[in-house]
Design goal:
The protein starts with 40 loop residues before the first strand and ends in a 25-residue tail after the last helix. The chain has a single domain (41-351), classed as Aldolase class I (TIM Barrel). The protein has helices at residues 73-85, 104-112, 129-139, 153-160, 165-178, 198-206, 224-230, 235-243, 317-328, and strands at 41-45, 90-94, 119-124, 143-147, 182-189, 211-216, 247-248, 259-262, 269-273, 286-289, 294-296, 305-306. It is globular and about 55 Å long. By secondary structure, the protein is an alpha/beta fold. Helices cover 26% and strands 16% of the residues. It has nine helices and twelve strands. Bound molecules: iron/sulfur cluster. The site of iron/sulfur cluster has 10 residues, from loops.
Amino acid sequence: MNLNPARLPGQKSGKPVDKPVDKPVNKPVRLTDKYHREFPYLRLSVTDVCNFRCEYCLPNGYHRSHRPAVLTREEIRRLVTVFAELGVWKIRLTGGEPSVRKDFTEIIDMVAHIPGITTTAFTTNGYRLLANAQKWQDAGVTNLNISVDSLDPARFKKITGHDRLTEILAGIEKSLELGYGSIKVNVVLLKDINDSSLPDYMDYIRERPITVRFIELMQTGDNLAYFRERHQSAQVMRTALVKQGWTENIRRNGAGPAVDFTHPDYQGAIGLIAPYSKDFCLACNRLRVTATGDLRLCLFGDIGIPLRDLLQSDDQMPELKSRIITQLEHKKSSHFLAQGKTGLIPNLSATGG
Ligand code: SF4
């Protein structure tokens, strides 16, 4: 495996341009970009493999390609340790489907106990949740996001290719019983498929302290035709919510991009994630690392910054810190999805959304 990084942004020739940090390397530095946005939140993909065939992402299922092996636990430990020293306190473990990794529980346990990390979250399709909810909570997961694109079993099967809605909902019930810190259900908003299902999800959260988030379908490298047919603006949901007396909440520090709504008659909340809405990226607060160790400054960015060559020994941590800080200068103000620019991302499984 060639660990020498390809040419980095801003690099002219020869050895990568990692500007030495003139601050003592053990003094945490806050990761801030030139738009004064801070990045306390890292989304770390631990695998690009997924066992589902969601029609908006991997309609033909996952096909192993000639990619390098995924990061080892030692490489993940070094990576997260350095990000924590750079002020990151929230880690979201993503995939593909992260729980397909055989050592997933060990990864949770390791990441959740790295100094500085106070929130360990993960996003899952839920297929292993019922059997593992207790184990993952014991290992250190506090925040759970589960993808449930329909509460109708037949429609769920059509969207995901799997007839597993019942066991996934049972896994969510188990997680509620266990008292996870935060449980959210992600719903990719699909025109003429689930855009009329708001009442079903409202019933679902009437007695459950769960946040259901409707996420606008995003264009990626591989789904243009599907995107054109199924993209629906989240505005339809916002209009319906306001009409029924739901109130928009103030966004908390470190929170994701969702705009949340609550209603006194419901224990749960409804969130809207609208990447196509104006100013969506003003509050960007997250960075991503792929399962093979590339830093992504934006989900739809057109640069991948290799970090793996600096994850091979603890002595390299100061250099890794410098590279992350230096490269953050290349972060753009926003995505350019409105111009149809989807960057490097062929599908959401590639970087875990
Ligand atoms: S699209 Fe890119 S810039 Fe915008 S919020 Fe997401 S990661 Fe940040």
